Amino acid sequence: MLRTSVNYNRTMTDLPTAMVRMAHLVNHVFAEVSRDHDLTPQQAQLMCQLIAGPVGMGELTRLMRLEKSSMSGLVDRVERRGLVERVRDTCDRRAYRIELTEDGVRLANKSHEGVIAELERRAASLTDEERDALTALLGKVLD
Amino acid sequence: MLRTSVNYNRTMTDLPTAMVRMAHLVNHVFAEVSRDHDLTPQQAQLMCQLIAGPVGMGELTRLMRLEKSSMSGLVDRVERRGLVERVRDTCDRRAYRIELTEDGVRLANKSHEGVIAELERRAASLTDEERDALTALLGKVLD
DNA sequence: CACTCCTAGTTCGTAATACATACAGTTGGG
DNA sequence: CCCAACTGTATGTATTACGAACTAGGAGTG
Fold first, then answer.
1. Interchain contact, A18 vs B119, CB within 8 Å
2. Residues 6 or more apart whose Cβ sits within 8 Å of residue A136
3. Which sequence spans correspond to the domains of chain A?
4. Separation between the CA of A104 and the C1’ of D19 (whole angstroms)
5. CA A39 and chain centroid, separation
6. Are B119 and A15 within 8 A, CB to CB?
7. C-alpha span between B91 and A2 (Å, rounded)
8. Percent of chain B beyond pLDDT 90?
9. Can you give the pTM of this predicted structure?
10. Nearest CA of chain B to the CA of A138: how many Å?
């Protein structure tokens, strides 16, 4: 068959293009790892946001850049799997804190570690200096 | 635990985390630009894949990492908007070449330029040397 | 040619995603 | 107390994504 994609990766003169491809790679890794744990990428991302501790719906919508109605549904589905719980906020009775269950903690950690490990693997070709430089440069763009 | 001495505003000690955040940023930019042009991110991504020229369904599924049934639907919806056409391959009568229409070319270019421009804007804080270094480092990881 | 296997895409059914809109309960300021 | 603002849900719609089953066109072998 026709093989057109030979000269494809080597000519990387463009920073935005490199950024887009990096995003594509990360999305792919996230999708693979999620699937390994029987989660959708969105569900896995949600779980990862909760590892550090319970988060309210409003904060979650900001973190994941979703409308609140979308977040409601997402939390619904993850809650239905017993990975997450809605706990009433004691101070504000309108609000919930979304909290990982015991199973949820386990799965969230495994997913998070899976993503990190795979990304580390992809970055393994870098020297220590290059790693530090890349981290710093990404940090600068992300500010 | 590894702790680099690089201190930016945020505590960014971790390369994988930086990569994930970069991906999140790019996804966001893509979503915003797409929305400005009345496209979904997936539709915009498809259009961008076609800027260089017509592509068959099989190649598209590989490029976008989708199942062929998903790609069928995606092309359907974009074709229904008149942005893309299925053209029979002359050599293989099972195959199609997916091709941008005139409107499609216009919109694809605008979307592509929009994404590039916004990412350039985000990277504007980098010096020329830093830009080159970041591009090269991303390229190395992407291999 | 007949036969078989493979490939290119579609169709269909299902679940998840994402949004806008409309809604209910709560909070806090005047 | 009243009401605007806020927190989150419910509903309806379109899109996304997948797998399985399918059609039809190549491609190789006897």
1. no
2. B6, B8
3. 15-121
4. 27
5. 12
6. yes
7. 12
8. 90
9. 0.90
10. 6
Distance CA A117, CA B39 (A): 34
How far is Cα B90 from Cα B113, in angstroms, rounded to an integer? 32
Instruction: Tell me the shortest Cα–Cα distance from A109 to chain B, in angstroms.
Output: 14
Q: Mark the nucleotides of strand C covered by protein, meaning any atom under 7 Å from a CB.
A: 7-13, 16-22, 24-28
Q: Are B56 and B97 in contact (CB under 8 A)?
A: yes
Q: Give the range among A124-128, B1-5, B74-78 with minimum mean pLDDT.
A: B1-5
What type of residue sits at position B138?
Answer: L
Q: Of B99 and B1, which is predicted with more confidence? A: B99
Locate A21 and state its tokens. Answer: 């491809």
Nucleotide nearest to B95 (CA to C1'): C8
**Gap from B4 CA to C15 C1', in Å?**
43
The DSSP annotation for B80-122 comes to HTTSEEEEE-SS-TT-EEEEE-HHHHHHHHHHHHHHHHHHHHH
CATH code of domain A15-121: 1.10.10.10
Question: Residue type for A13, please?
Answer: T
Q: Is the predicted pLDDT of residue A6 greater than 80, yes or no?
A: no
Using the beta-carbon criterion (under 8 Å), do A141 and B131 form an inter-chain contact?
no
Phi, psi (rounded to 5 degrees) for B13: -95, -10
